[in-house]
Amino acid sequence: MKGVGQMYKGQVRSPALVIILSIVTCGIYAWYWIYKMSEELQRATGKSTISPGVELLLCIVTCGIYPIYWFYKYGKMITEAQEQAGLNAEDNAVLYLLLAIFGLGVVNMALMQSAVNKIWEQDII
């Protein structure tokens, strides 16, 4: 397990901009965001079961079924990253799952981006 001082820091993104870009690009930015979020959280937690490219491919070829699982899985990874960063861990994986089931993936993206921004903004040196 990584020490707190060795944690990978991902890119801080505006949750509002993530939503706007996803809508304006008709979902293309959402695919990019899923790839980058997969990559950053795998590096931060040290868990890399499936490459980010394969995660993205599964999201596309399953016509929206795999992203439901993806939101749950990466919700759990966010909780792990929060623990590793020394933050109060909030396990919102079930919330992300329910929002995805009801077609509110864009809300998930904003919530998840906000959660990881708090991790990336930590002064952990």
TrEMBL record:
The keyword Membrane applies. The chain crosses the membrane at residues 12-34, 54-72, 93-111. Residues 13-79 form the DUF4234 domain. Keywords: Membrane, Transmembrane, Transmembrane helix. InterPro entries: DUF4234. It holds the Pfam family DUF4234. Signal peptide: none annotated. This is DUF4234 domain-containing protein. It comes from Acetivibrio thermocellus (strain ATCC 27405 / DSM 1237 / JCM 9322 / NBRC 103400 / NCIMB 10682 / NRRL B-4536 / VPI 7372) (Clostridium thermocellum).
